[in-house]
Design goal:
Blueprint (H helix, E strand, L loop, with lengths): L1 H7 L3 H21 L2 H28 L3 H28 L12
Helix pairs in contact: 1-2, 2-3, 3-4
Length: 105
């Protein structure tokens, strides 16, 4: 992504701005977790989001690609999972029996 491009090009401002943007998104996902309703899923997501935030902070502070390399596949999987959940919810909402999306957030 753009954060990686910024780090590769030694464009610290570009890298910083894009890493902060990703951190803000992950922080919002973390803040939306319902730990009471979500049970084990919410706990696992919380740990995962905190890990992402730690690695993003390390990448930003040290201007280092390694932390991004560690989490990039996980972030891609997470994004794809959310996209699939939204797609499934949109399909379900067209059926006569509407169901709530239970994603522990």
């Amino acid at each position: 992504g753009q954060a990686r491009e910024g780090l590769e090009k030694k464009n610290n401002e570009m890298a910083h701005n894009n890493l902060i943007r990703v951190q803000a998104i992950i922080s919002e996902l973390l803040a939306c977790l319902d730990m009471e309703q979500g049970g084990e899923i919410s706990k696992n997501l919380s740990r995962l989001y905190l890990f992402f935030l730690e690695r993003l902070t390390q990448a930003n502070l040290n201007k280092d690609l390694n932390p991004l390399d560690n989490i990039a596949p996980l972030l891609t999987d997470l994004r794809n999972t959310w996209a699939e959940a939204i797609k499934t919810e949109n399909l379900d909402s067209k059926s006569p029996q509407k169901r709530k999306l239970n994603i522990a957030v």
